[in-house]
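User: quick one, sequence for these tokens?
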């Protein structure tokens, strides 16, 4: 079974584009929890172009006492980011090597050369009792460095797979992800995944092995406009919860 964590960034972006509190991020989180999702993800950025600091704090308060629904906060490990994380009580902190002005995440960590940043960050994650994860490309050297760094999980950046899906390159690309997952599991790392996964390509990706969690937001939001939120979430849960057999 794979856990489905829904990223609420695009809901916040829609709200921000009108200058009103509509759609309300907290209300969407409540609806998703009622639909049976396994987690809520946010990726707050310094310019607050989608999720705002206040959203993150309110979601942390909402989810703190909700059984079986995890709160995952993604972002670059800056001082401001950790100030927010430490006030929001997440279950998981996923560190992403984004620059301040980056449109969206588009690459994983170079772990060995980033230990001056990642080492102290892990200490702060441990201090709040959260799980630490690193956003990685499906690169065996980076997987090995992540395992040596002491983090609990990696999140495989799946845009390369999504771009190859349905093309002659799909099988070869998917094999690189399978290799990264198998090495991670062998080294004691849990494996998450995310970026451009959707209802069409998700099942094929989850067939590579024991993916513990997928974080999906952009595609789920667009698909919900086309097909309805409840229907889309139910289809994602069906795919995720049948992956790998019984929990």
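Assistant:
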């Amino acid at each position: 079974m794979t856990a489905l964590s829904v990223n609420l960034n695009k809901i916040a972006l829609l709200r921000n584009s009108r200058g009103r509190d509509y759609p309300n991020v907290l209300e969407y989180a409540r609806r998703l929890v009622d639909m049976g999702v396994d987690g809520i993800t946010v990726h707050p950025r310094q310019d607050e172009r989608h999720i705002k600091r206040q959203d993150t704090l309110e979601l942390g308060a909402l989810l703190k006492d909700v059984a079986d629904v995890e709160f995952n906060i993604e972002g670059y490990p800056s001082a401001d980011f950790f100030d927010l994380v430490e006030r929001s009580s997440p279950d998981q902190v996923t560190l992403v090597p984004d620059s301040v002005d980056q449109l969206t995440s588009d690459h994983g960590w170079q772990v060995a050369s980033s230990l001056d940043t990642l080492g102290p960050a892990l200490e702060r994650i441990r201090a709040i009792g959260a799980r630490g994860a690193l956003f990685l490309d499906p690169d065996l050297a980076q997987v090995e460095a992540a395992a040596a760094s002491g983090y609990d999980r990696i999140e495989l950046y799946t845009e390369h797979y999504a771009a190859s899906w349905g093309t002659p390159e799909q099988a070869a690309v998917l094999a690189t992800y399978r290799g990264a997952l198998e090495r991670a599991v062998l080294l004691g790392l849990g494996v998450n995944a995310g970026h451009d996964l959707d209802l069409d390509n998700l099942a094929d990706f989850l067939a590579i092995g024991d993916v513990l969690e997928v974080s999906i937001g952009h595609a789920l939001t667009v698909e919900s406009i086309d097909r309805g939120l409840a229907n889309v979430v139910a289809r994602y849960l069906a795919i995720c919860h049948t992956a790998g057999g019984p929990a």
